[in-house]
Amino acid sequence: MPETTKPPLSRRLQARFFRVVNVPMRIILGLPFATPLGRNLMLAFIVGRKTGKTYRQPVSYVRDGDALLTPGGGKWKLNLVGGTPVRLRVRGRDVSVTPELVGDVDEVGTLLQTMAAGNPAAARFVGIQRGTDGSFDRDGVERAVRYGFRIVRWHLPEPTTGAPTSPRPTEPTGA
Prior knowledge:
- With 175 residues, the protein is α+β, with helices and mostly antiparallel strands.
- The protein has four helices and seven strands, in the order H-E-E-E-E-E-E-H-H-H-E.
- The chain starts with 8 loop residues before the first helix and ends in a 20-residue tail after the last strand.
């Protein structure tokens, strides 16, 4: 599809909404201690590919083993370069991670299921219909990927023994 194809109106309105909401979210998520919002949201410090300026982007996340998963529906993900570390503020702590953009339709569908299980609100924001069994509509996933939707898999650093490491985000406790 040509790059001039616009996303649906609902996606464009959602982007406008988040531009406004993200202003206070940056402040809250940037605090040096965990907040209730930090259970499912983190702050990504993204360096602009053209400007070199650092942008603070609030994003939702779900823990998946030794990685964090984020829906990448906005333009911010275009600044991610595979193999280039990115700083995240997760639950009040900074961690350096390596991003991976996942664009394979089948894998995106599977990762969306993982994300929906870990954070049901994330499923509502991606805007892809779900079947009666809870699975995401394959045509909807294909359409979203065609419009540029990706899952960002943030690879956490491997812990090393005997040396200090970057703080790893902890799983929220069930309270």
